[in-house]
Amino acid sequence: MDADSNEPIIGVNVTLKDAQTGTVTDISGKFSISAPVGSTLLFSYIGYVTKEVKLGTNTSLKITMQEDQNQLSEVVVIGYGVVKKSDITGAVASVSSKQFKDQPVKRVEDILQGRTAGVAVTSVNGLPGGTVKVRVRGTTSLNTSNDPLYVIDGIMSGGLDVNPADIQSIEVLKDASATAIYGSRGANGVVLVTTKKGVEGKVQIYADVAIGVSNILKKYDLLNAYEYATALKEYNGISFADDEMEAYKNGSKGIDWQNLMLQTGISQDYKLGISGGTAKNKYLISANVLNMTAMTITTKYQRAQLRINLDNELTKWLTLSTKINASRTHSHNGGIDIMNFLNYSPTMEMKDPVTGVYNMDPYNSVNGNPYGARVANYGDSYVYALNTNMDLTFKIMKGLTLSVQGAANYSHVPSYSFTSSLAKPGQISGMENASRMNLFWQNTNNVTYNTSFGDHHLTATAVFEASGAEGRNLKLTGSDLANEFVGYWNAKNAKTRDGENGYSAEAIVSGLGRIMYNYKGKYMLTGTFRADGSSKFQKKNKWGYFPSVAVAWDVAKENFMSKQNIVQQLKLRASFGVVGNQSIGAYTTLGMLAPTNYDGYGSDAIHTGYWTGNLATPDVTWESTYQYNIGLDASVLDGRLSFTAEWFRKDTKDLLLRKPAPQYNGGGSFWVNQGEVRNSGVEFTITATPLTDKDIFGWETSLNASYLKNKIIDLAGSDFIVGENYTSIGGGPIQIKKVGYPIGSFYLYEWANFNDQGANLYKHQSNGSLTTNPGADDLVTKGQAEPNWTFGWNNTFTWKNWTLNLFINAALGQDRLNVSRYAMGSMTGVYRFISLSDAYYKSWDKVANKADAVYASHKNSDNRNYPDSDFWLEDASFVKLKNISLTYNIPKKITKVADIQLSVSAQNLFTLTKYTGMDPEVYSESDYGFNGVDMGSYPVPRTFTFGMKLNF
């Protein structure tokens, strides 16, 4: 086991000195070998100092190995097995707990961001518990999920509901050689999470407390009440009394909407854990409670988790591993429309003094009062989850094991909302109660044979697996409540009520095999094959087949390299494989009827009937991704400097697209497999330890960079598709699917300049002339929502008991359509008056030199401000200091009680960007990866965290 962590080490070579006899440690770090008394055992493992132990009469040994500071590689999980990193043939990125244990991470996605090449992690919004988007080597599908498959301790999961303190390691499988083992679920990459185990020996207890304060990094410069009133008089002829203007000017009257709606956020993160056990029985129990108050008023988030991991050796040939994870999350008033309050008038009266109803903005036809929506309305959503996992491992004979694993994951997701009649004028009170219950089960039977003969090493794996899921949902709504005293517990008092429910079930059965061959650690071959049968497809397309092959050659192991001692590894890798995507609805391919109401043809009677709800599509099959990968792994100077480079290409074919059905057949649309998308790129990772003596000064650094090019190759014969699954603003779609362009391209008018009256001029695409009134033929494809380049740079400096960490993340080449700026800077459409300071002072009307004008004239009634114009499209490239932390360790020999670690850190301390919005990283969420539109997206907060850890 590891001398520092007491964690078992898998795959240690145990050999009898001066003999050919040997074995390797199993997944629990155990081994058995026949050897005479007085002989010497050698324990060797890459990354650890080789150890010699002379045998006495004791037949039970506890061996601890010290980590070699000049380590070359480590054991990583690859799906249905483990392998030394030096023997990997595919593209696998690994993150160990050592890389984030001293940072205040609250969720697993934060661990991945910027730390793994080829993995793009974006905060869709910065809300506590908010959505995070993870993409492994790009977006592959137009109409199905692009999320990677998450596997926790061997069990497939719909998310990452894991306490970060419980994580031992995270592996990201990126190419087909690594992901094909997961077949139809591996097209978008696979994220493997391995949780910690209990350790043999003295009971270990840890406690961790982190308190954070958050604020918004950047606010908009808005017109204050006096400026707004002045602009109203200038543009709309609305006058205010002199005493009102004086009150606005001195600040005694008026609303600062940003200060009213935004506040300092508070987070409290508490963790407690205990582990220990004997050689045959080990346990780990941990708990985590997280309380967060958001930067927006009335928004709160809570999470509580409990984990129990047990490992028991029942006999010499049978072990039992049990893992139980229970969690509860609660979100109160989770959503907020930031764009709404950014555009609200600072001169309005908040409430009607007689009725108590929150007023609408009298100068803008926008949504209801944003403050009233937060304090009069409210909602709560919960997630109760229980995940259980049991694994029986049989040691059938030397090198041959059988693992029988069963798991059941249950979640109950209730949500409640209440709408008050006081929230805005004319609002009808209402309530909603909804409940969703999900059950996922999985059975995995894994036979693995691991053997060595001479210089040859072979690992063969065969797996039979079955899994399924059921979902039930129920919803009750009521409107026009007789009273509002009990909020959403009020269905009985509603004048009108409605309800609905639903059920779905799906299953998949799989068989798979993998062979890993290694000759002298020099030549490596991996071949996998998986067959999946899915209930989602009809009979002739029910089965999908997914093969892969990979080869590797470590040039540093060749004889002609034996006389040098600089290069320890110089491995060339190549792989090809096919993986699939079956992320469609359980009944997508079936013909289904939907109820509808129709009149009585000549009478007032309303009848209920049925029409086509879903056209049968028996020919629909899997989306298939063909992946190519070439890689180089190099390690020099005894592992102090390592380098990895990858080139990849992913061709996703048989894309699911919708085609319109003729009206005589009921209209609507149906699914076909007739599209293709390509993702290609390169990845680089450099890891170095320039300074190794932490008592003097230590420095470890890691830099990764990824370049990605996404392109649509085919759209079922069409050149482009607009209007489906895209945000629509100003009456038309603002994004487009177009052959030759990336997913997430924008579809906009091309802004050119202002005319002599200060009106916007747009370019006619037919002849290049300029016009104030462009048409549909003048829309062009430009920009992209996803970055071309992503970077992550992590640095850890140590000096005696001090540790300083700096982590920088960057994304280059992405664009955002800043609709919030349009709403604040325009006097057209539903947003009829400006609130942005620059839109007033830098408008055509206000600047002396018209060449300096940034915004069009607000006086020109013929001026057209289109939100779907590239005038509002901005470069959203950024560089962020994601984390800076300073920790100090006080050893137990000083405190006499526990090892104590004190820390102070800051997250998102600064951002370098040209983007004028609050945060270039976030965007308003939409389905299927089409994003890049900022409609008041909640920014990622700047957070200062103070922490203390105790290890007893």
Indicate the topology:
Layout: E1 13-16, E2 22-24, E3 40-44, E4 51-54, E5 75-77, E6 82-84, E7 92-96, H1 108-112, E8 119-123, E9 132-136, E10 149-152, E11 155-157, E12 167-173, H2 176-179, E13 190-195, E14 201-215, H3 225-236, H4 242-250, H5 257-261, E15 265-277, E16 281-293, E17 300-315, E18 318-332, H6 338-342, H7 370-375, E19 378-397, E20 400-419, E21 430-453, E22 456-481, E23 494-519, E24 523-534, E25 543-554, E26 567-581, E27 592-599, E28 606-614, E29 623-636, E30 641-653, E31 656-660, E32 669-673, E33 675-693, E34 697-715, E35 720-722, E36 728-729, E37 732-733, E38 735-738, E39 745-749, E40 751-754, E41 760-763, E42 770-771, E43 779-782, E44 789-799, E45 802-812, E46 815-818, H8 819-825, H9 837-841, E47 873-875, E48 878-890, H10 892-895, E49 899-907, E50 911-913, E51 933-934, E52 942-951
Parallel strand pairs: 10-13, 46-51
Antiparallel strand pairs: 1-2, 1-3, 3-4, 5-6, 7-12, 8-9, 10-11, 12-13, 14-15, 14-52, 15-16, 16-17, 17-18, 18-19, 19-20, 20-21, 21-22, 22-23, 23-24, 24-25, 25-26, 26-29, 27-28, 29-30, 30-33, 31-32, 33-34, 34-44, 35-38, 36-37, 38-39, 39-43, 40-41, 41-42, 44-45, 45-48, 46-47, 48-49, 48-50, 49-52
Helix pairs in contact: 3-4
